[in-house]
Write a structure and sequence with these properties.
By secondary structure, this protein is mainly β. The protein has a domain of about 100 residues: Metal Binding Protein, Guanine Nucleotide Exchange Factor, Chain A (Beta Complex). It has 1 helix and 10 strands, in the order βββαβββββββ. The protein has a 7-stranded mixed beta sheet. Strand 6 and strand 7 form a beta hairpin. The protein is globular and about 40 Å long. The chain starts with 12 loop residues before the first strand and ends in a 25-residue tail after the last strand.
């Protein structure tokens, strides 16, 4: 964890997409955070890994830009939600379900107050970028529950 205080309803953490059309706030502490090295995250972000934080459904609120959001729904994974105007990956999950969302840390304004705690799907890591020796636990697939 960092020195930043966890978000609260009185001090929400804000974020959004690159063009600013989509804005959101987080009003509670993140459940967990991780790097995902799966091929889907590589292709979705154009990077070797995706830094994400899980947020409880009641702690995420979309402030603006609902009309700009589009969703890719893979057959075997969570929906991937992005801004149709700038292409920014915003979160994974479904706002209509009572389940945590996977928020993309790159879209958060400032310090999210959480640091990635593990690396998942490392068996699919990009050959062109070594995983850093950062001491985080590594899992070939999903981490154990």
């Amino acid at each position: 964890m960092s020195g930043a205080a966890a978000p609260t309803p009185q001090r929400p953490l804000t974020g959004g997409c690159l063009c600013g059309a989509v804005r959101y706030e987080v009003t509670g502490p993140f459940i967990s955070s991780s790097y995902c090295h799966c091929t889907r995250c590589q292709r979705r972000t154009g990077a070797a890994a995706s830094a994400n934080a899980r947020v409880a459904p009641g702690d995420f609120r979309l402030l603006s830009g609902a009309e700009a959001l589009r969703t890719f729904r893979p057959e075997d994974g969570a929906p991937k939600v992005f801004c149709s105007l700038c292409g920014s990956a915003v979160f994974s999950g479904d706002l209509d379900k009572d389940a945590p969302l996977g928020l993309r840390l790159g879209g958060v304004d400032g310090d999210p107050g959480v640091r990635p705690q593990y690396r998942q799907f490392v068996e699919f890591a990009a050959a062109w970028e070594a995983i850093p020796d950062d001491g985080l636990p590594r899992y070939a697939g999903r981490p154990p529950e």
